[in-house]
Every structure is written in structure tokens, then in C-alpha cells.
Design a protein that fits this description.
By secondary structure, this protein is of the alpha/beta class. The chain contains six helices and ten strands; from the N terminus they run E-E-H-E-H-H-H-E-E-H-E-H-E-E-E-E. The protein has a single domain, classed as Dihydrofolate Reductase, subunit A (3-Layer(aba) Sandwich), CATH 3.40.430.10. Residues 8-181 form the Bacterial bifunctional deaminase-reductase C-terminal domain.
Amino acid sequence: MRRIVHLVHTSVDGFIEGPAGEFDWPVMGPELSAYVDEVDRGIGTFLYGRVVWQMMASFWPNAEEISDSPHVRKFAPRWRAMPKVVVSRTLPQPGDTAVRVLRGDALAEVAALKAEPGKDILLTGGTELASHLAAAGLLDEWVVAVHPLVLGGGRRLFTQQKERTPLRLVESRTVDGQVVVSRFAAS
């Protein structure tokens, strides 16, 4: 069975985007970029909720024209080539044949996706889908990059958690002298 790894950037006060929806604050330095590359090596599918998908789909197809960041230049071709799954009841079918939209019971369809053969699944960012999957016990690993700023409001990291979820710390390290990346596994 494949694992679902949730990779997310957050502020010190636990927000994944600012009060006006801004996501211009994570800094992808060389060490954080290398860490993300390390996580990506075991991944065979990218998983998104609709909101994060729309952000990704507006940037990554032509990312090299928008940014000259070394991380962007390295990751963009991988993103375009990777199979992608989007959980959404309202998203029109994207024109990209590498994208599959799950429209039914999200938890059942993601559980079926996990049961498919292949490499692990990476859920990037977001809060709604991640929260629902975590509450249903479908997330296997969390990679949380805490950036050194306080956003003071916005969208919280987890919104649907009603019960405690014990996790096991796998590793924690500081990258680029400022971002703390912690990796947790389901207990």
C-alpha cells in the first residue's frame, strides 16, 4: 500500500496562508529545496484539493517564464511530468491528461488511490483535504516546514481535527539557517 505524505509550509503561528490569502512568504533556499527533492524521490503521484490545485496549475506549467529561482527551474519539469490527482466535486476536467479528478466520496476514493500499486503520494499544502484525510487516518506522514514569521491570521494548518492524533517525530532539522522542517509519522 502506498503512503500519503503531506508536505506543508506554515508560519510560526500555524497559518498556511496570510489573512488575504497570500502565499508569498515561504522562502525556498537551497537546503529546503534539497530537502523537498529528497522527499520527492519516493513520490509517484501528486495529490491536491481544488484550491491548491488551482494555484499550482496557474504557476507550474510555465514556471520557468515566471521565476528564475533554481528550485523552480529544477522542480517545474518534474511537476509537469508527474501524475496528478485532484479531489473536487466542482473542478472542470483539466486539459492535462496527467490529471485525474476524483469527484465522489473523497475519503473512499483516496483510500482506493492509496491501495493502487506504485510509489507514495504527496499531498502538498492546503488545509481542507489534508484535515479530512488526517481525521480519517489516511495521512501516513507529515512534513511541516515552519518559516520564521507570524502571519497573524489566515487559513490554519488543520481545520477539521476533532480529536487528538498522536504522531511520532521522525526527524527535525533547521535548513537555510531559518526554516525548521519536522517530519512526523502516524503512530
